[in-house]
Amino acid sequence: MSTAPRHAPARPRHVLPSLLLLAALVLVAAPPAQAGDLFYDASLALNVSDDARFFLNVTNRHFAVPETQAVSVLKRCPRPDSDFPVTMLLAQVSGRRADVVIALRQKGLPWSEVMVRLQVPPDRLFAGLDRDPGPPYGRAWGHWKNAQRARGPKVPPATFDDVMVADLTRLQIASAALRVSPYTIIAERQRGVSVERFVVIRSQPSGTVVGAKWNGAKPRPERGRGHGHDKQHPVHNPR
Asked: Which of 114, 116, 140 is closest to 129 using CA atoms?
């Protein structure tokens, strides 16, 4: 009787390609990670108001810097609710990386000095404002106009304190992100509505009732919803 070893049956040639096809299908079927998750999660750890957190996420989505860079900058901001929007705006206007901008801020420099070093003219804070906006921006607008008359359009923003710069930055970002006139936002501010609250309200689906706090959903700012007289005033990038 023959004692020759038995050989395992040959595997059909189509098995390996089939396994590769299955692996490819699994990869395709896997849900992709949503953009903005890293930043959104990082914002949840901040000790800021719900409206401010919502505005930070709108700011991040508007400027669309790489997620890891945005999270790194957010964590380095001494005052995230005000410093992060200013950092993103100055980075876009100057053409510099956001981490370069926040590094200057971490040296203790006021925003007016950071603007000078980045060669960002103060008129970038007043885009879309062709007349006195009144309170709460009228004082800053008056300083800017008086300085222009005295020394020309390239006057450094030495008369602007950090509060002014942050407030004007919120106005510019909200106007550009929602594509509404800054005067529309200013009118609401004069009624007691903050810029952050305005963005929350205008970012909700039509018919949604917005309470004192937003419900934690990720921001999805609308584009000029139902306001035909609103005009976009984007923050221009000189690059």
From this structure: 140
Give the domain range for residue 77: 39-203
Whether 29 is covered by a domain: the verdict is no
Model confidence at 68, in pLDDT bands (50, 70, 90)?
Answer: very high
Is the C-alpha dihedral spanning 88, 94, 95, 97 positive or negative?
negative
Q: Is residue 227 part of a domain?
A: no
**196 or 1, greater pLDDT:** 196
Q: Tokens 């007289």 sit at which residue? A: 229
pLDDT tens digits, one per residue of 175-202 = 999 999 999 999 999 999 999 999 999 9
Distance CA(200)–CA(37), nearest Å, equals 19
The shares of helix, strand and coil residues in the chain, as percent rounded to the nearest 5, are 55, 0, 45
Quote the tokens at residue 93: 């206007």
Peptide bond preceding 136: is omega within 30 degrees of 0, i.e. cis? Answer: yes
Is residue 223 one of the residues assigned to a domain?
no
- 69, two tokens: 């860079």
- 132 near 112, Cβ under 8 Å? no
The number of distinct structural domains making up the chain is 1
CA distance linking residue 60 with residue 78, whole number of Å: 17
Task: Tell me the torsion sign for CA atoms 164, 165, 170, 175.
Answer: positive
Distance CA 101, CA 118 (A): 8
